Amino acid sequence: MGGKDLDYSPGFGNEHSSEAVSGALPVGRNAPQRAPFGLYAEQLSGTAFTEPRARNRRSWLYRIRPSAAHPPFRRVDNGWLRGAPFRDVEPDPNRLRWSPLPMPDEPTDFVQGLVTVGGNGDVLRREGIGIHWYAANRSMERRVFSSSDGEFLIVPQRGILLIRTELGVLQAEPGHVALIPRGVRFRVELPEGTARGYVCENYGQPFQLPDLGPIGANGLANARDFLAPVAAYEDGDEETEVINKFGGNLWAAVYGHSPLDVVAWHGNHVPYLYDLRTFNVLGSISYDHPDPSIFTVLTSPSDTPGLANADFVVFAPRWLVGEDTFRPPYFHRNVMSEFMGLVEGAYDAKAEGFVPGGASLHNMMSAHGPDRTTFDRASTAELVPQKIDDGLAFMFETRWPVVPTEFALGGSHRQEGYDRVWEGLERHFGL
Length: 431
Ligand SMILES: [Fe+2]
What we know:
Elements: E1 8-10, E2 16-19, E3 40-45, E4 58-63, E5 74-75, E6 96-98, E7 114-119, E8 129-136, E9 143-147, E10 151-158, E11 161-165, E12 168-172, E13 176-180, E14 186-189, E15 195-202, E16 226-229, E17 240-246, E18 249-255, E19 262-267, E20 272-275, E21 296-301, E22 308-315, E23 318-320, E24 337-345, E25 359-362, H1 372-380, E26 386-388, E27 391-398, E28 403-404, H2 406-410
Parallel strand pairs: 9-17
Antiparallel strand pairs: 1-16, 2-19, 3-4, 4-19, 5-18, 6-25, 7-8, 7-28, 8-15, 10-13, 10-15, 11-12, 11-14, 13-20, 16-20, 17-18, 21-22, 22-27, 23-26, 24-25, 24-27
The structure holds fe (ii) ion (FE2).
Residues 332, 334, 338, 362, 368 line the site of fe (ii) ion (FE2).
C-alpha cells in the first residue's frame, strides 16, 4: 500500500464514516440483526456513554471477527516503558536536558523501542501524562499494540511511520503528528528502516482543539487540516500478538488472526494525522509576545476550567515584528511543567545544546529562559521584521510536575551541566 497515495477523511471531532467494501457500513442503525457481509458490530467507547454530546467519543466498528474472541492476556516484559504514578526516583526540581536517544543496536520495533522519560498523574485514575521517546530499526511484524491507559500523540523526529490502525492507515513523517485514540490497535511499520521520535501518552480527557475566544472562528490548528484514515482491513489467519498497555504494564495475547480486520466504521473516536506546517501561527503585531499558549495545537482539559491536563504546543515558523520587545521567549517560572523537543533545525531561545531529537524538561517553578548568547543577541538586535523559519520545536505542557524515570536521569544521553547554559548572565544594573 502506498504512502502519500493514502486516502484520508478530513476534519477533527466530527463524525467520520468509511467502508473498504461498498455496502459494508450498515445504514440507518448501528447494530442490525445481521450486519452486512456477516461482519460483527462492535462499539469502541473513548468516553463514558453519558458524557456531554460535545465531548462524547465513540466509534462503531464492523469487523471480520469480534475483538472479544481471544485467549487470556499474560504479562510480558515492559522494557523501559513505564506508567504513572512514577516512583522510580524522587521528583527533581532541576532543569534537565538530553541529547537524542541513541539508535538501538539490536533489532527493535516501535513498541520495543519505547522508553519512558517520566510523567505524572495516575493511569488508573485516567489523569496525567506519560512522556516517551522511541527509537526503532524494524517494523512491527505480526503484532499490534494499543494502550488502555491513554491516547498516543506521536511526534516523529526521524523516519516515516506507516501506522496501520483498526480504522485505517496513516503515514506520519517528521513535521507531522499522529494521534491514536485510547484502545485503538495499531502496528507501526518503518518504510525507511529506522525511526525516532517522541510520544505524549495522554491518560486524561482526549485531546481536543482549544477554544479560540476573541481569536474568532478560525486560526491556530484548523479542524479541516486533521486527517482521519479510511477503512482498510487485513483478512489474514496468521497468529498475531496483541500487546495491551494496561495499568502501566504490558500484557499480550495471541489472536489467531489479524485484529486489523475492520471493514467499515463510523464515529468520532478515530486516529488523526496532522501536518504541523499547516498550523496557523498567531502572535503580536505591536509589542511583547503572547504567552506560548497561543501556540496550542491540542489540549486535554482537566476538570478545572482553563487548566490543562496537557497541552501540545508547537513553535512553528513565524514572523517576529514586535517593537521595543525582547523577542525570544522571556525568562519565566511556570506552575505548569514543560517538556520540549525539537523536530528539526534550532529553537530561538537556545543557541546550542538543544538539538533535533533532543529534549528538555523544565519542571514546576523552575527558572528558565534564553541562554546568554541568545540574551545578548536579542537585547541588541535591530528590530526589523524577522522570519523565524529554521526550526520546528514543540512542547508537552502539563498541570503537574513531571517525575522522571531512572532511565531518563541516568541515561548516557542526559546532558550534564545544563545549568551552565545560564552562566555568565552578568549584572547590567546601573543607576
Ligand atoms: Fe517555559
